[in-house]
Design brief:
The chain is mainly α. The protein has one domain (2-191). 70% of the residues lie in helices and 0% in strands. It has helices at residues 2-29, 44-66, 71-96, 111-117, 130-143, 149-178, 183-191. The longest helix is centred in the C-terminal third of the chain and has 30 residues, at 149-178. The radius of gyration is 19 Å and the shape is flat.
Length: 196
Amino acid sequence: MRRRMSRTALVTLTAVIVLSGWGVLMAQDGGQGDRGQRPERGGNDQERQQRMEQFRQRMNERIREELKFSQEDWQAVQPLFDKVVTLQRPLRAGAAGFGGMGMMGGPAPRGEAAGRGGGRRPEAPADESELGKARQKLQETVASEGATSEQLQAAMKGYRDARTKAQKELEQAQKDLREVLNARQEAQLVLWGMLD
């Protein structure tokens, strides 16, 4: 039973992380992730964002209950929790894109796969964080056949510097969150991958 609850909590947390990130990026992108793939359909983007926000709120409530916070305490803790989620997102995005297998705009499908999907898979909404922009710059430089060694070195340095800065910001946010948790809550967030 306990293992089942932990599994449920993990699924819940994963859904919140994914949906909170997608909702923010969709808002920044103005829902343009689908444009170019199909025509606009009135208020569908707005309705989808509303459904996602409602789902995110339900997931946040389940997390609050799993961590056994009162409504009042959660009001103070949730901004710290959300900050960790927000700062983890761009750091994890790089791993998702390794080898072009994630959503980072890797090579287009070939052969039969290209025919089924109508060519290149849909682009993920742009990551507007400093690290996301540095990653994009590095990807563009690597993709450029004419990029010089100096340009590649500069793009790598920009990416590494942005990643180091993002990691330090995440560590501080995790420290701030840890200070308001009891041992059981901290242990649960370690299991969920929110804390080290």
